[in-house]
Amino acid sequence: MKRGSTPNSKSLAGQVVAANVFMVVATLFAASVAARLNLTVADQRGQFALLGLSILLVLLVNMLMLRRRFSPLDRLIERVEAIDPADPADFQAPHYDEGAAEVDRLAASFHRMLRRIDEERKRSGRLVVRAQEEERRRLARDLHDEVNQSLTAILLRLEAVSQTAPPELKRELADVKKLVNQAMGELVTLARQLRPTALDDHGLVSAIVSHIRRFSAQTGVAADVRVSGDPVDLESDQEIAVYRFAQEALSNIARHAAAKRVDVELSSNGHGLEVTVRDDGRGFDPHSSSEGGGLSGMAERARLVGGKLRVASAPGHGTSLTLQVP
């Protein structure tokens, strides 16, 4: 039953009203029979009509009271239906001046259930992210230690063969060595993208700065980094989330933005970190369904570590992405 609407037979209030109507009408006729009212007599017809009008007035008052008393439940239902599935923990139970204890208990229980569901989702999500990062670390190590070493051995064998090879084969061997060197460089880049060694060796800020410099060198887009505030110690999951946010934001700029300049700001107050990636590219409509897939993934990663993602963009006016991590 919507607030302000007339109770219908399928709603709880409608069923209560229908039961009341049935009982009152039955009582009216039972009382008439017990009092042996004769409707053929004018005075008794008047008494019966007066009794019927009184009962009708009671039923109308009863309906109004029921609608008022059931309105907290209607408002709670509307609030529940308006919950954002992506962030259910933001649900706040409505407050009532004259609320029913049962409705308050229902709202509080629903709120606790949502919080437990959100906590479990974050816990399981963090476990998934940790497993992914561990697998990335293993792949990066294998690429660097095994595949790269095999390519190095091939390069050394080619160098040895080229020393004794006839002149007509030296040029081909030189081309093969260039391809091997190129493959080694691509493997190093891939391993660094899978798991940046700077993140483990030098910390989050240094890893982000190094990645931005490589981004600028590879794409030719001017990039400026500003770091302000007191250093803040983040959990390992949070550091990974911040680094992946910066990595994906720069990757999207390179692929889609056609930007000429990128500004990255890292600021902290000792209690949290805020990272903003801003470009002067073509921009987009954040509410467009065709643009929402990547942003929803970034927002979900932020929520898993207790952070929030803000998006500001418009076609032709660039894009600003901000990640806040407590």
Layout of secondary structure:
Blueprint: H1 12-34, H2 42-81, H3 101-164, H4 167-194, H5 197-201, H6 204-219, E1 222-230, H7 236-257, E2 261-269, E3 273-279, H8 292-304, E4 308-313, E5 319-325
Parallel strand pairs: 1-2
Antiparallel strand pairs: 2-3, 3-5, 4-5
Helix pairs in contact: 1-2, 3-4, 6-7
Task: Explain how this protein is built.
- There is one protein chain.
- This protein is of the alpha+beta class and 326 residues long.
- It folds into 3 domains: 1-82, no CATH class; 84-195, no CATH class; 202-325, Heat Shock Protein 90 (2-Layer Sandwich).
- 65% of the residues lie in helices and 12% in strands.
- It is built from 8 helices and 5 strands, in the order ααααααβαββαββ.
- Strands 1-2-3-5-4 form a 5-stranded mixed beta sheet, with helices on one face.
- α1 (12-34) packs antiparallel against α2 (42-81).
- Residues 1-6 have low confidence and may be disordered.
